[in-house]
Design a protein that fits this description.
Largest sheet: 3 strands, antiparallel
Number of strands: 3
Shape: rod-shaped
Strand content: 15-25%
Distance between the termini: 85 Å
Number of domains: 1
Structural class: alpha+beta
Length: about 130
């Protein structure tokens, strides 16, 4: 009985050594997937916040919105993301008048942290549109 135990003691170590890299890769892949979902939700909310900012600041308001002010509002809303990677495109009809639709599109290059996968950055984007009310 003792002889059999000694012959199998090394096999557990070998099995563990073979399984741990696969397990670690699966865990890191799950973390990256969750980070990607969180990033996508963050840019979706930032796009909505930017559209809301622009929709309440028409040319008739005290502080009319511009592309720069909308981008600033979006970047401020995208907490936790690298501000240098956040791209913002704002479009509204000429005149920026009440009743027109303002569209804010936010893009972000997500970079996974999982090693050994040949996945470069992943382009995420979201768009929101609201009518200009003020």
């Amino acid at each position: 009985m003792n002889r059999r135990r000694n012959s199998e003691s090394g096999s557990n170590s070998v099995e563990f050594a073979l399984a741990i890299p696969v397990l670690a890769l699966m865990i890191l892949g799950s973390v990256d997937f969750c980070r990607a979902i969180w990033t996508n939700n963050t840019i979706a909310q930032a796009a909505l916040d930017g559209a809301r900012y622009a929709s309440v600041r028409s040319v008739d308001s005290d502080e009319p919105s511009s592309t720069a002010t909308v981008k600033s509002a979006v970047v401020d809303s995208a907490v936790g993301l690298d501000a240098g990677k956040v791209g913002v495109t704002t479009t509204w009809p000429a005149g920026n008048n009440q009743g027109a639709i303002v569209r804010v599109r936010v893009t972000y290059d997500f970079e996974p942290i999982t090693p050994l996968l040949p996945i470069g950055s992943i382009a995420l984007d979201s768009e929101a549109q609201l009518p200009i009310v003020n």
